[in-house]
Amino acid sequence: IYLIDHAWTYTLDNAKEVLKGNEHLVERMCSIMNLPCKDPSEDEVIENVLKETWKYNNSYILQNANQTGSFTRCWFIMDEFGSRIHRSEDPTFAIAPFFFCGDKMMYSLLFPVINVSEGEEVTCAYPRLKNHHSEEMKMSGKYPWEPCDLSHIDYTQSEPDLDYFMFDTSENESNKKRLYDYKSLADMRDELFYVSQFPSEQVLINKDLLAIVCRRSCEVSDSNVNDLESCPKWLPTTYSLMIELPQFISYFQNREKRHLDNTWICKPFNLARGLDIYISDNLTQIIRLSEIRPMVACKYITDPVLFPKENVGLVKMDLRFIVLLRSIQDFELFVYERFWLRFANKPFTMDDFEDYEKHFTVMNYNDFPLQQMFCQDFIKQFEDYYPSYKWSDVENSIYKMIKDIFITSALSEPPSGIGSYPGSRAMYGLDIMLEWDRSHDEPTINPVILEVNWMPDCKRACDYYPEFYDDVFSVLFLNDINGKHVVQL
């Protein structure tokens, strides 16, 4: 077993500043990456280093002791020896991070996985690559080190037909080829009781499945495909980097050939609070990010509706709407009239994607300044700043989008869609942004769905409106909507 030292360990939000303040580090990185370095203080040299790091990067996470579920992802580049190790489909060695408590330092362990002869090359595996992967998937996984043109691959997205599925569920206990070893809640008690979830609601709250569900709301036309447009408009183009990586690379390269914007936001399937989310226009970086956990790549909103923040300027914002689902079978869906605002802290521009306070709005789980505003105050300021647009029109388009999402989520039977159970009641938090549509003479404002959260954090709701949970319980469990600040969709 061999120890490999780490030449540079950093977090993405501080990488650029670290390089700007350490010319020796820039020179060492250029040497490791075989990059020209006439002046290590030049911005172009630093940008080239940051771009090239994704051929060498590895990562690990450190749990934050002061906050449950929170963590910091650390990226590292191995020393000159470790960074020279080539990748192979038939590796001779494996590499793994190793934390040594004695000096509180992280190293990498290098050890053989087969018998190696003297003089034989030391190689390590391509991340993610498996023997059963298709040739297209293998080429996609190798792309950071062996770039290739995959633009010929069909990037359209469709759901498989029934012949694709190898397993199904069965109520017949004599069928030994089916797994049924659990009891449904309905079988556990004789009387009806309430459950705060709906069967198979993961099709909404998992970001990869949410995209599939939303795409059912419209049929993709040839014009959508040829123009590389999203369908429906309120869903950003979304690819699962776990199973649709070749299609994503093809779509990315086709956009590149047409000189279209190629900025993407990469999100874990099922994490909240802005954890492990990255914005990038670097295809190699996006592919490498897909190695750390299952992720989706969503087209980044480059023309959001901005909000004037006092003493700051025009900043990004998003809106949290609370949605109450009382029944799927009878489709009883309500949206809470009062919504919540979240704002970035710096003026929005399409650069510095590592700057959290410029591109992200979730500030209540970290040490960044948090601006809070009642929705009625927001509406007044919004209409004052955008006098040609009525908030009631924007709100109606948001309500229509929410209704479409839940209708399409129930089009298929579980597990492909939300199921019905008489005692199910659920509350969801929908995160929504507003985007300009400038395809017409007069720009319009369109809502865009970001994600759906089950049982969202409602502390701020209770702080603003002490009657919030009284309203929620009255609607969900007492069938009382009068004066409860909800709109039925």
Count of individual beta strands: 20
What class would the helix/strand composition place it in?
alpha+beta
Task: Kindly report the average pLDDT value.
Answer: 90
The portion of residues forming beta strands comes to: 15-25%
Task: Please state the overall shape, judged from the principal axes of the Cα atoms.
Answer: globular
Task: Give the helix proportion (percent range).
Answer: 25-40%
Distance between the termini: 63 Å
Largest sheet: 6 strands, antiparallel
Please, how many helices? Answer: 16
Rg estimate, integer Å: 25 Å
The poorly predicted ranges are 178-182
InterPro entries: SET_TTL12, TTL/TTLL_fam, TTLL12
GO molecular function, one term: ligase activity
Pfam families: SET_TTL, TTL
Protein name: Tubulin--tyrosine ligase-like protein 12
Q: Describe it for me?
A:
By secondary structure, the chain is an alpha+beta fold. 27% of the residues lie in helices and 23% in strands. It has helices at 15-20, 23-33, 43-52, 80-83, 135-142, 185-188, 202-205, 207-215, 222-226, 245-257, 283-289, 356-359, 375-385, 391-409, 459-464, 468-477; strands spanning 2-4, 6-10, 58-63, 71-78, 86-88, 93-100, 105-112, 123-125, 238-240, 264-268, 278-280, 295-299, 307-309, 313-315, 317-327, 332-336, 340-343, 426-437, 444-454, 486-488. Strands 15, 16, 17, 18, 19 and 20 form a 6-stranded antiparallel beta sheet that branches. A 4-stranded antiparallel beta sheet has the order 9-12-10-11, sandwiched between helices. 26% of the residues are buried.
